Amino acid sequence: MGFLKVLGHMLQRLAGYDIWLYVDRATWHRGEEVELFVQSHTELHLEYLPPYQPALNPQERIWRQARYEATKNVCFPDLGAIYSRVTERVHHWSEKKVQQLCIII
């Protein structure tokens, strides 16, 4: 499972620290395997965001803005065209814009 690999890597890189990780309720963030992993690594603490709260998830704000700027009222011939348009649009964003979307500043 990819999420468990990420957690394992975090534990190696941040050895000696308590890690508090806030995640959404995606299926790969939950389940018996994840619970057993967290129980066996007491320095790791998972906190789950409330369900249906996209406002608490910065990537939701990024995605909403990208969709608005790149795909609103446009008909694309294929998935590759959508990918190209979204990629081109977000690569022109300033660091400040991304920080504002993520409410970092």
Please give the alpha-carbon distance between the first and last residues.
34 Å
The string of secondary-structure elements, in order, is HEHEHHH
Order of strands, main sheet, comes to 1-2
**β-strand number:** 2
Average pLDDT level: 90
Report strand %: 5-15%
Domains (count): 2
Sheet with most strands: 2 strands, parallel
Tally of alpha and pi helices = 5
Shape: elongated
Structural class of the helices, strands and pairings? Answer: mainly alpha
Q: Considering DSSP H and I runs of 4 or more, what fraction of the residues is helical?
A: 40-55%
Give a brief outline of the structure:
The protein has five helices and two strands; from the N terminus they run αβαβααα. With 105 residues, the chain is mainly α. It folds into two domains: 2-50, no CATH class; 56-101, no CATH class.
What descriptive keywords fit this protein?
10% strand, elongated, two-stranded parallel sheet, 105 residues, 5 helices, single chain
Description:
With 105 residues, the chain is mainly α. The protein has two domains: 2-50, no CATH class; 56-101, no CATH class. 51% of the residues lie in helices and 10% in strands. The protein is built from five helices and two strands. The protein has helices at 2-13, 32-40, 58-71, 79-90, 95-101, and strands at 19-23, 44-48. A two-stranded parallel ribbon has the order 1-2. Strand 1 (19-23), helix 2 and strand 2 form a beta-alpha-beta unit. Helix 3 (58-71) crosses helix 4. The chain is elongated. The two termini are 34 Å apart. The mean pLDDT is 90.
